[in-house]
């Protein structure tokens, strides 16, 4: 693209988009764009909102360990 776009230091992901359309949305605007570049910070876990509560995704290792703990001792 030939220029550097600002990315927030604490952002875990970013998307660089080319604006294709701008639509009125009451007291704001709705932008439709096409993604031209994206990236992420490895090892980061996003904050999720589901079923009226916040949580974070776990790593595969943490999920596996939790399933072992929940299963209890081997008889």
Short description:
The chain is an alpha+beta fold and 75 residues long.
How many β-strands, per DSSP? 4
Order of helices and strands: EEEEH
Q: Uncertain runs with pLDDT below 50, 5 residues or more?
A: none
Percentage of residues in DSSP E strands: 35-45%
> Which class of secondary structure composition applies to the elements?
alpha+beta
Main beta sheet: 2 strands, antiparallel
- Rg measurement, Å: 20 Å
Strand order of the largest sheet: 1-2
Report mean pLDDT, rounded to a whole number: 82
Supply the number of structural domains: 1
How far the N terminus sits from the C terminus, by CA atoms, comes to 61 Å
Number of helices: 1
- Can you give the helix content as a percent range? 10-25%
Structural shape:
elongated
Describe this structure in words.
The chain has one domain (13-71). The mean pLDDT is 82. By secondary structure, the protein is of the alpha+beta class. The protein has one helix spanning 60-71, and strands at residues 13-24, 29-40, 47-50, 53-56. The chain contains one helix and four strands.
List the helices and strands and how they pair.
Elements: E1 13-24, E2 29-40, E3 47-50, E4 53-56, H1 60-71
Antiparallel strand pairs: 1-2, 3-4
């Amino acid at each position: 693209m030939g220029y550097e776009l600002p990315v927030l230091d604490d952002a875990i992901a970013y998307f660089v988009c080319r604006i294709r359309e701008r639509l009125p949305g009451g007291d704001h605007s709705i932008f439709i764009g096409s993604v031209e570049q994206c990236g992420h910070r490895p090892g980061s876990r996003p904050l999720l909102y589901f079923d009226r509560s916040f949580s974070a995704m776990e790593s595969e290792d943490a999920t596996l360990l939790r399933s072992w703990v929940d299963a209890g001792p081997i008889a």
